[in-house]
Specification:
This protein is an alpha+beta fold. The protein has helices spanning 4-20, 84-96, 114-119, 144-155, 187-200, 220-226, 244-260; strands at residues 29-31, 34-36, 40-48, 57-65, 68-77, 103-109, 162-167, 173-175, 178-182, 204-208, 231-235, 275-277, 279-284, 289-293, 300-301, 306-311, 317-322, 327-333, 337-338, 343-349.
Length: 350
């Protein structure tokens, strides 16, 4: 055991080295209205300017700037305001992180879509009725949802080296736990993104092929990938619930990522039996009506299996949701309202 006096001398020596060598310290980072120097944890807001469709929005963020130099990791939650476990997981992570023990910087966006969160709406911002995860990289002169995306892209994603976009099943979705790995065709980027996906620690990984050139990023994680930054989308939780298991599973995945990137001590817990989902199929509604699910997220199904049915408002069956191939139910809509064109079931194939 090292004597206390010797330990103090070692600490003072290392501390003096850090002071004498600024290159060993993490640089000061300004994100929105938050400026965090090396060894500091600061919270505040990113302001989204008002427009003709609504007032100024304040997005809550925390910047944990480590004492030592390292990568910048962005963690975004609340892209959809009814997805609660990732939001609660980031609150816990904020309490757990110690800047003195971190190499690099963690940018936490606690709730991206504040209007949806405060009004408890699924999918859409109640001011312009756009899906926050379909408008990236956004436009500063656009509608509210597009302005939010623009600010997140420029204040958070552009300043980050890695990105985890944390989601779960929305208030209407019975969803199993999985994440998305998107292949871009850039070997170096794909290698880093694949490692990010594998080390998060989930069993099921959906493999998405590259989006054609010329199309917009659309999703938050794709916005990062289009800038050459490794990013994955995480799904854990369902039906607007605040399950303790889902919160802790998301928190553990974030911890695995920090370890994988060398930002904190330790090694990520490996998952030896990861399953790759090679294709996904959506069964969409052909009418508006009332949906009756006959399956659950995570269920293995065979081709031809009846997964649910849609009725008109008088109880007459107007559409059946039948499994198009063998696979697993990634999610199923578990509440009655159904609009025309929306997914009723998402099936993954192997």
């Amino acid at each position: 055991m090292i004597p206390k006096k010797t330990s103090l001398v070692i600490f003072l020596f290392v501390f003096s080295l850090l002071l004498a060598n600024p290159a060993l310290c993490q640089e000061t980072l300004k994100v929105g209205g938050v400026t965090s120097s090396s060894g500091e944890i600061k919270s505040g807001f990113i302001n989204v300017p008002a427009g003709s469709d609504g007032p100024e929005i304040r997005i809550p963020i925390t910047v944990v700037n480590g004492k030592k130099k390292g990568p910048v990791l962005a963690l975004t939650a609340g892209i959809h305001g009814y997805e609660y476990p990732p939001i609660l997981a980031l609150q816990r992570l904020r309490r757990q992180l110690d800047p003195a023990k971190i190499s690099g910087t963690v940018i936490m966006v606690h709730v991206v879509n504040m209007p949806s969160f405060l009004k408890r709406t699924i999918y859409y911002n109640p001011h312009d009725w756009k899906n926050q995860n379909r408008v990236f990289p956004g436009k500063i002169e656009g509608t509210m949802t597009e302005r939010i995306a623009y600010q997140i892209t420029n204040e958070v994603l552009k300043q980050s080296d890695y990105h985890l976009d944390l989601h779960c099943g929305d208030g209407n979705e019975d969803l199993m736990t999985y994440l998305y790995y998107t292949e871009t065709g850039n070997p170096e980027l794909d290698k880093k993104t694949l490692a990010l996906a594998k080390n998060f620690g989930f069993k099921f990984i959906i493999h998405v092929t590259a989006r054609p050139e010329g199309q917009p990023a659309s999703t938050c994680s794709n916005a990062s990938l289009f800038m050459g930054k490794p990013a994955v989308t995480v799904e854990c939780g369902k039906l607007g619930r605040t399950s303790e298991e889902d919160i802790e599973t998301t928190l553990k995945g974030c911890s695995n990522t920090l370890k994988h990137l060398g930002m904190v001590d330790g090694q990520p817990e490996p998952v030896s039996d990861q399953v790759w989902v090679r294709k996904t199929t959506y069964i969409r509604s052909e009418h508006e009506g009332i949906f009756y699910p006959l399956t659950q997220g995570g269920r293995h199904v065979q081709k031809g299996k009846l997964l649910g049915y849609l009725t008109d408002f008088f109880g007459n069956i107007i559409q059946k949701a039948v499994a198009p191939h063998d696979g697993i139910v990634m999610y199923v809509i578990a509440t009655p309202p159904m609009s025309k064109g929306e997914p009723m079931v998402k099936i993954g194939g192997f």
